[in-house]
Amino acid sequence: MNKSKGKVVRYNKWGYIFLIPFIVVYVVFQLIPLISTIYNSFFENYMSGLNQVGPTFVGLDNYRELFKSGDVWIYFKNTMILWIMCFIPQIFFSLLLGAWFSDVRLRLKGSRFFKTVIYLPNLIMASAFSMLFFTLFSDAGPINSLLMQIGFISEPYKFLSHTGSARGLIALMNCLMWFGNTTILLMAGMMGIDTSLFEAAEVDGATSTQVFFKITLPLLRPILIYVVITSLIGGLQLFDVPQILTNGTGNPMRSTMTLIMYLNKHLYSKNYGMAGALSVVLFIITSLLSLLVFKVSGNDKRKG
Amino acid sequence: MKKKAVSALLCAAMVAGMLAGCGKGSDSGTPSDTSKGDASNATESASSNLKDDGKVLNIYCWNEEFKSRITAHYPDYKEVDATHGKIGDVDVVWNITPSDDNAYQNNLDAALLNQQDAPADDKIDIFLVEADNALKYVDTDYTAPVKDLGITDADLSKQYQYTKDIVTDSKGVLKGVSWQGCPGVLFYNREAAKDVLGTDDPDEVQNYVCDWDTFNDTAAKMQAKGYKMISSVNDTYRVYSNNVSSKWVEDGKVQVDDNIMKWVDDSKKLVDAKEAGTFDMWSDDWSKGFYPDGKVFCYFGPAWLVNFSMAADTEGSIGYNGGWGAAQGPQGFFWGGTWICAAQDTDNASLVKDIMLKMTTDDDVMKDIVLDDDDFVNNNTVMNGLADGSIKAKDGKEYSSKILGGQNPLSMYCAGVETLDLSNISAYDQGCNEEFQKAMKNYFEGKATKDEALELFYKGVTEKYPELTY
Amino acid sequence: MAKSKKDVEGGLGIHARRAIAYIVLIIISFFCLFWFYIMFINATRSKGELKAGFTALPSDHLLTNWNNLVHGTLPIWSGMFNSLIIAAATAVLCVYFSTMTAYAIHAYDFKLKKFIYPFILMIMMIPTQVTALGFIKLITGMGLMDSFIPLIVPAIASPVTFFYMKQYMESALPLSLIEAARIDGSGEFRTFNSIVLPLMKPAIAVQAIFSFVSSWNNYFTPALVLHDDKKKTLPILIAQLRGADWLKFDMGQVYVMITFSILPVIVVYLILSKHIVQGVALGSVKG
User: Per the UniProt record, which residue ranges are transmembrane (chain B) (predicted)?
Assistant: First the structure.
């Protein structure tokens, strides 16, 4: 007994050793600047042209300023709407494809090809991607002329000038760029599942639906949690697609303005104080939501 | 997983951190700590900071335009590689940062703030600015007055006044020079003019666009025949905004000039009557009118727009068939241009002076730039000479534009540029112009009332410039 | 209920479902590949033609655009080389050390673990853009401006990749295996390198792709750190091309360059994605 316990302790020091690179790099490149962010959220501190204003300690003024107009909540709402519009089709298609690819009975031909193709849109830079989107959805672009030819509309529809369609386009582009990513994550998770389980299920005469819900999904749970949480975090940090598609305006009338786009507005003047305060708020929101996901999914029984 | 998105901001934030840090770190001596007023007063004593013992000439710019001008036209410049050259025994280092996402300005700001502490070989000697951000740099002590370099008013007498207005600081001190003039005119589609107005003669067409009321009346005629007057209301924005009688910002308060409000009202009418679109400049929809099928009557722009940006080299375009005409338009304006500024603390003062003089005042160099690069240069002797035919084009003939159907538009450009008065620019122009156009688009498209759109504009500006109120 | 459903599925199922699957997959593939097609189309068109709007058929300016690009002043070959080095190094460091960190949390039991695991998860939730405030100041102070190090080394601490590795280990790395290795007398470090890493192959391939691609397409950090043309990466050069003055501005060249810069990522992706598929075999061996 004693001997084996000593052995375990001896092994466990390796836990620390393996953590060293991560911790060192993290502290050097991220932790110090992070602390200064929080610290700076209590200061008035920005650039007026080339002139530095501040830093002057202002207590919670930046936070008060942030919540005074209530705009933060509007941008939070926009962000969540965009995330949901993107995430639901994304997870649906990812699970569907994942299920098909892992379904032994379906025996899809060319699945290798399909698996490869789905991730490709992510290889295009967001700025290049949005250039193509502009071309397609412009007033005189192919989508509008198609819709006009079939008599669906009589004059060009301005996709980026209506709240619904602007949000829809952002969600569509984001979804296209990231659903392959999610599918690959899930597929890699499915690869890790012991195939003999599927074979056994097949022998027992389980249906594909049963296999999916009774075997694949439960075993996939850790990866699914990962997907939901990182997608949520990524969703809250949604920035590049709406920024580029709306040219940073969040038009129409800021209905597509996300929290990080708002943060970006403050970075223009190097407004360290307001940006810091907004970051702290964003961090709190993200933590609460992630915690919620953890609780709901019951992942709190972490193994030792 | 949005790593890309994250990294985007990551860096914007990093710059923020860096700059904030710099401001704090260099407590004494840097101009950043003095208020604006004090900083400008310090000009006299600062002039002694110009030295002449530098071994490296650092030039900050956002594209290769100036480099190619120097390479082609500065006598002693020898190219070493893409970002290095030599003038005599001084090494020239080109520090090119693209202007996407404000990267150029972020980088330049950081370098300027660090200018005093930087080692001699890293000190900025020359940096370039654009009209919209000129005052941000010029109205600080980081930019050296050209007078301090030994350049006199007489040296610059042939330059157009507006190019000097833009780089004159709030104390009236000139702090930069440009080799370019970018006066604009109205380019009209000759076919449309014949079709609707019954003539394509520049002088007669001018009668239909001589002021904004006439212009808007003509727009209705165009619409009746299926033409758009202009592709987008953003086309006329710079014409209105170049002719304002007050600044965007006065005493820390944002205000909207009457002429800009006139743009809003005129534009709203044009959009509602379907006489103009609301497209962003350079978008596919905006450039549709470069071709006959686009059915757009006119564009506003300087020579470079019609020469290089309106698909004149592509079969089937209006420009390819010489189908544009040039008319003066309702008001004079300019578009584009690059200014050369000397950084305070430069250690190559006399070389900087020589570059400025050779590249922006030397008649021969100026003429070569016109003939080789089709630039419109900032020199009225050369431009007037080309306009009246006393200076010949490369083929030995009088200058005429094939794209404009053989018209020689130079005298028109020259006349327009003389009338420009740009004394009402402010250091906030870039942000104000951008935010204003973006906010008003909502009003034009019926997504907001005029007041809501104005409110959005004020909100946007005060986010960009926290020190302002409205 | 369950039974009748099963019958329906079992009876009508397989063929109909296979057909539906093929149709959906083909539609999805079309949406994924379509962008590459229009990118290619645009790369073959001259700058004037591009202004005329979209067409579905290629034009004949591909070579002209390419020649303009290659004979321009932008060092595209060194740009590609730099991009490759940075992206490859980032991917390698990121996956190796993230796996190592995840392994430390997964396989060992130590006092600070209860503290460190939630701590890393918390880091993940901090918007990354904010955690990096002061980064440039830091690397300026360290004299690392215009160097690849600040673009590569921070990849060692990638909480998101770590989290994935940790989750993956939970479903695919039984602790009994490590015990067995220990009994065989394998050292801890060797166990990690020769047993854990191969087992993690699909996850490693996945995350290697992700970090390679995001590093490859990253514009902002490199734009601030790299100023020497010879050190610039492709996205900066593309931005420089798009910011060209009116004399040289040419969207045809921009599209050619974008196409050019996508090719290597596609190659890397195809190579790595093979490993994801090979992971299946490993899975069955393990069983």
Answer: none
